[in-house]
Amino acid sequence: MNEFNYRALVVDDEPIICRRVSRALAEEGIDCSSAYDGEAAWKMANETSYDLVVTDLKMPNKNGRELITEMQQLKPRPLIVVLTAVDEPEVIKSVIQLGADDINIKPVKMDAFAAKLQAMLEVRLDATRV
Length: 130
What we know:
By secondary structure, this protein is α/β, with parallel strands linked by helices.
């Protein structure tokens, strides 16, 4: 297991998805917390600073779109990545317009997905140092 360099919040109403994403991110040195709906995620994000939020779109209590909009208010703002089964061009476009940094369509190869997110976090950190 790697030393943890970043903190992530994984949000999906399917616990198995949260576990799979968290396990893959942990292998990349990212410490993960999980929430099973957008409302719980928003509460957690107001209590703890996260470098990364990975969210589904379709969830109870607060959907991913609402969560993305709210996450824009956080200082510092986390990297926001959507992981969804919704594979519609208009949805993809609208999610990016809302402020998501990336969108990925399920199923994904978890190790490659986690490596990409680790690289995105490193690029963001390097950009803030300049």
